[in-house]
Amino acid sequence: MTDRILSNIAKHIQLSEEETIVFTSLVVRKTVTKKTLILQADEDCRYLYYVHSGALRSYYIDKDGKESTIMFAIADWWITDMYCFLNRKPAMTYLETIEESTIFQISRPNFDLLLETVPKFERFFRILMQNAYTREQLRVMENLSLTAEERYHSFVRKYPQIARQVTKKQIASYLGITPEFLSTLRKPEI
Amino acid sequence: MTDRILSNIAKHIQLSEEETIVFTSLVVRKTVTKKTLILQADEDCRYLYYVHSGALRSYYIDKDGKESTIMFAIADWWITDMYCFLNRKPAMTYLETIEESTIFQISRPNFDLLLETVPKFERFFRILMQNAYTREQLRVMENLSLTAEERYHSFVRKYPQIARQVTKKQIASYLGITPEFLSTLRKPEI
DNA sequence: CAAATAACTTAAGGTACCTTAAGAGGGTGT
DNA sequence: ACACCCTCTTAAGGTACCTTAAGTTATTTG
């Protein structure tokens, strides 16, 4: 059951048998039905999540009530409201399951304990954060330089599996356009 | 001369005397005149930079020749084309000095060596990457939910010093709007 | 210090994308 | 099996922001 999360970690660091036991003792597995809110804005963001199976979405609701999708996480992705998890601030975003999902969660105290007792994880999370950072930076670049249509095609090319698992409305809110406009963009093709 | 970069590091990790010596032996100080291109697209991105004084700007030029500012870095910031530095890919972005600047550069081999010989730096760069990631994520959120005018005010509020050091045109290209439109936004006030 | 160059502004006309509305199709729950 | 709700689509009218152009003020350069 922990195979997938352990091989995710093994992509970047090698754990001894004892270190593996420490790690697995600090994470908790959970299965959550579809459309469950795992985190709500203004709540304390207590966990970092690894998606074993299923799909999650984090989104922001602005002062006008408009929803913007921050990120999707399908199998083998990590997700949470990172700023609030790391800085002990109330969450700014919502996190919900798109479909029934099995996740592993690490609480903040356990996250700190993990980094203390197995410092190798500093390296693991450095690489995770590095990748997340460069991915977000690329997204900013695309938002600044591409049209809505180009961003849609880039999204589908980059994340074909996610494009299949989520609704058009959710993709539109990730791209920063209305579902109506996405619909007109998609019409010409096929 | 290395005081500022060392106290930047001391914000997150404590170095012994020997570790400090290792670190300073791996970085090189440079003073660069204004408007110097430190990195160009398609070049190999060989260095990570810390800004001791002055100001740098990284930008992207898209297929239509339009320039988008990725980030500014003033005193005490780290900057490079992170994706290309870490993944040994040709640079996607340009990096230039806005004014005469003193920087410290770390080459890729020295960066790897630093992480190997002083593993504490894994923690330092984890925190650096974490902060960069959450900052970019907030920028994506603002790009998706705020109007151009709101983004401009948010930028000035968040980075008052940068707003003073760079041109309006550069701010416009960071916000994803034209200088002409920024000008009309600024007119009503004062 | 002049001359060139770049930054900033103003304004008119244009376009990418939004808002509102309404209808068709597909799940979901009772 | 019906009603309900949500997604997706289409279309008409609206707006935020762009393009082009031209003038003014800084800043750089010879």
Q: Your description of this structure?
A:
The structure is a homodimer of 190-residue chains. Chain A is an alpha+beta fold and 190 residues long. Chain A has a domain at 3-117: Jelly Rolls (Sandwich), CATH 2.60.120.10. The first copy, chain A, is 49% helix and 23% strand. Chain A has helices spanning 3-10, 17-26, 82-87, 108-117, 120-145, 148-158, 160-165, 168-175, 179-186, and strands at 27-32, 37-39, 47-53, 55-61, 67-74, 78-79, 94-97, 101-107. In chain A, the strands form two sheets. A four-stranded antiparallel β-sheet of chain A has the order 1-8-3-6. Chain A has a four-stranded antiparallel β-sheet with strand order 2-7-4-5. The interface between A and B is medium-sized, with 33 and 33 residues. The structure holds a DNA duplex (30 and 30 nucleotides).
Summary tags:
homodimer; 190 residues; alpha+beta; Jelly Rolls; 4-stranded antiparallel beta sheet; 9 helices; 23% strand; globular; DNA-binding; cAMP-binding domain of CRP or a regulatory subunit of cAMP-dependent protein kinases (chains A, B); cNMP-bd_dom (chains A, B)
